[in-house]
UniProtKB/TrEMBL annotation:
Its main location: membrane. It is a multi-pass membrane protein. HAMAP family: Lgt (MF_01147). The gene is lgt. It comes from Bradyrhizobium campsiandrae. PANTHER family: PHOSPHATIDYLGLYCEROL--PROLIPOPROTEIN DIACYLGLYCERYL TRANSFERASE, PROLIPOPROTEIN DIACYLGLYCERYL TRANSFERASE. This is Phosphatidylglycerol--prolipoprotein diacylglyceryl transferase.
Amino acid sequence: MPFLLIDFPSFDPIAVAIGPFAIRWYALAYIGGIVIGWLYARSLLKNERLWGGPAPMSLVQIDDFILWVTLGIILGGRTGYVLFYNLPFFIDHPAAIFRLWEGGMSFHGGFLGCVVAVMWFAHRAGISILSLGDITTAVAPIGLLLGRIANFINGELWGRATDASVPWAMIFPNDPTHLPRHPSQLYEAGMEGILLFAVLAIMIRFGALKRPGMILGAFILIYGLTRIAGEHFREPDAQLGFLWGGLTMGMLLSIPMLLVGSILVVRAVRRGAPQPVEAIH
């Protein structure tokens, strides 16, 4: 191994095993993202100053919503992966669709699943779709961070080959080429997780939640930008490879997010913050 290469840490993808029962780090990333995100969402709802008055939904409502958004993430994420990334395989092996423990989740599919969950629950509960979208996307980078770390632990979705002189280049044990590669999972964890969370948190502290749709739009826009940037270092899925003009599926699915996110941000700015209702004396 060249002197500058970092040896990939020897991670066990199984976090806890009790007899035949095993819990993988990937599953813990989903569970941790949902639980920590739920706690963060509750803290945001309790802070009336961030909303310019009472929050547009109750703590009980956000507690009920967790189940629906979890289903949206799992069902949408798996459906998106099947349709966008490996449809021919799943047509030939339909039973494999349900083997979630083998991996294969799409962020874009999971996001669309969340959109459906937000719209359905907001309509059913009589609350603002945009505000529920704001609170959902404000916490989403937590799950993205943990998910990308789980990808790294599993030694999957590695980066493109690079020169061995790159100090942090790694050879991933599951890579049949044994080439030095970018640890793109960590790049994405930093951009989609830490950076995105920090930007949204700063916006929230400066009153973005007072403008329904602002955080939702910013999340969609910034995620699209960071995902496209990260795709420049990530090896495309083997069954897809590069598409037109060197684009990847992740890039193509992120391009519409730039347009949608920009529209939501502009509309939130033009709409302005709702005026507090004055007390009647």
